[in-house]
Amino acid sequence: MLNIILFGPPGSGKGTQSDLIVEKYKLKHLSTGDILRDEIKKESELGKIAETYITQGNLVPDKMIIDILLNKIDNDQNDYNGIILDGFPRTLVQAEALEEILNKHNKKISVLIEINIDDEALIERVLTRGKTSGRADDNIETMKKRLNIYKTQSTPACEFYKKLNKYAAIDGLGTIDEVFGRISTIIDSKL
Ligand code: AP5
Ligand code: MG
Which of 34, 45, 77, 119 has a 20 to 30 Å separation from 69 between CA atoms? Predict the structure, then answer.
C-alpha cells in the first residue's frame, strides 16, 4: 500500500500533481478542500459552516475535518493501491488523528512530500486562477492569510513526519511535468 501525503502551501500544485499521481500509481485521491467545496455547492449544513471559514482563509475546525476523513478512510479501498492525501493533515492535531485512524486499519503513511515554493510565485498562481476559478479564497487578502496560516499552523504537521523519518521535500517551481518527475522519483523509492 502506498499512502502519500502531498503537503504544501496554497497554490503549490497539490491538486494538479495529485491528478497525475492518481493516474500513474492508481491511488485514491482525498482532497479535503475539494470535499468541503462540494458540500458548499450542495448547500449542506456542513458546507454552510465550512464556507464561513474558507472565505476568511481560516482552517475549518479540526474535529469537523477529522470526522470527514474518518468517514472516507473507513470506506472500502480495495480497488486502489493506496491513498493520496491532498490538504490533510494541516495541523498537528490532524496528523496525530490520522496516525490513529490508519493504525486502526493496519495502514501507515509511506511518505509526506512537501512542495516548496516561494510566496511570490504562489500569489501569482492563485491570483491567475482566481480570474476563472470562482473560488472565494482566490484573492490577495485571503491568500496572504492562507500563507500565514500555512506557516504557523500547518508546519507542525510537517515536523511530525520529519520526526518519524517519513519526510521528503521537492522544489515546486518548474513545469508541471518537471515537478511530477521529482515527485515520482520519491514515490518510486517507496515502492
Ligand atoms: P485547499 O483546497 O486544500 O486549498 P490550498 O491548500 O489553499 O491549496 P490550493 O487548492 O489553492 O492549491 P494547490 O496546492 O492544490 O495547487 P493547484 O494544483 O490548485 O483548502 C482550501 C480551504 O479549505 C482552506 O483554506 C481551509 O479553509 C479548508 N481546508 C481544507 N483542508 C483543510 C484541513 N485539512 N483542515 C482545515 N481546513 C481545511 O495549483 C494552483 C494553480 O497553479 C492552478 O491554477 C494550477 O493550474 C497552477 N499550477 C500548478 N502547477 C503549476 C506549475 N508547475 N507551473 C505553473 N502553474 C502551475
Ligand atoms: Mg488544491
Answer: 119
Does pTM surpass 0.70?
A: yes
d(CA 123, ligand 1 centre) in Å: 11
Tell me, using a 6 A CB cutoff, whether residue 154 lines ligand 1.
no
Q: Is the pLDDT of residue 48 over 80?
A: yes
For cell 496554497, what's the residue?
10
Q: What is the pLDDT of residues 79-137, one digit of tens each?
A: 788 999 999 999 999 999 999 999 988 899 999 999 999 999 999 999 999 999 999 99
Domains, the chain, in order of start with CATH, read: 2-190 (3.40.50.300)
Contact assessment for residue 50 and residue 36, using Cβ atoms and an 8 Å cutoff: yes
**Is the CB of residue 142 below 6 angstroms from any atom belonging to ligand 1?**
no
From the CB of 36, is ligand 1 less than 6 Å away? yes
**Ligand at shortest distance from the CA of 32:** 1
Query: How many other CB atoms sit within 10 Å of the CB of residue 78?
Result: 4
Q: Which three cell numbers stand for residue 5?
A: 501525503
